[in-house]
Amino acid sequence: MSIIEKALEKAKENQIAEQTNLVKQDLNPEIPINSEELIQEKMAANQRSDVVDGNIISDSRIVEKQQSYVERQQERTRNYLAINWTSMQEKGMLTPEMARSQMAEEYRIIKRPLLMNAFPDGDNGIEHANLILVTSSVPGEGKTFTAANLALSIAMERDKWVLLVDADVAKPSVSKLLGIKPQAGLIDMLIGSGLRLSDMLIKTDIPNFSILPAGALHQHSTELLASDAMKRLAKELSERYTDRIVIFDSPPLLAATQAPVLANLVGQVVLVVEAEVTPQYIVQESIAKLESCKVLGCVLNKVKKGFGFTYYGLGYGYGYGYYGQAKKVD
User: Fold this and answer.
1) pTM (two decimals)
2) Both 135 and 46 in a single domain?
3) Domain that holds residue 266
4) pLDDT digits (tens, 9 = 90+) for 134-153
5) Closest C-alpha among 40, 38, 37, 42 to residue 61
């Protein structure tokens, strides 16, 4: 091997080593991706070059590969959420270290019948039982707090996957609670934007917990939620993954028209009621809007101390009810 060939070989080795270090520096350690695979891919792209008069000339395909690499990195960052657990705890939310807390136990009581209905031993006659709508009569009763905590509690199961859908499309409360910036979501799928469900799902640092944002504001959101596209999406969400629970955080029943529409697409509904505040006639009016639902449960929220640990029994004469002591609001 000539001196020039040895020099070129050494230059290539140095270039590859430098590129490896650069790629490692670019990778975000908080994002669960196959870093070794990306390193090898980028190195392979950069190794494709021509040698002219002793100079290494980069192939234009290297630039394309680098651009593709950057785009994928940006896509992974956009569709990934590292939950701020300190902030969540300050808001009174259920966090992983609270597994032995009273709140965690209360949500276990709430979720167990829902899971039994969603994954029965035999046919229980409940269509789309793994789709659960969480709503309330009026704003401020704690529906988003309940929906998010219920999702987090189910995500603690060893063999269940949870998708939390921000279906309060006029007031995306889930996104606000979890600190998700505005981006494409449910409404964008329904208007035929060409985006796939996988393009909009946000994965979190809980491996089996994902979020579908509300998406763009739209003046015909009720019609979109009642459309055939929404029916197809609900069917896909229910049947595509047999081990997945999908929780919809919907608008209040008496404040918007979307909730009754969504209730017709799910198998189970959880109605959040603010203890000692929401009048009984308001609750009865809400239940009347849900009379076509096969399974309706109630969560009594913001119960004052002294009520006791947990009461479980029939709720307002409809099926079963859940009564707990969670005290936070939307």
Assistant:
1) 0.72
2) no
3) 82-323
4) 999 999 999 999 999 999 99
5) 42
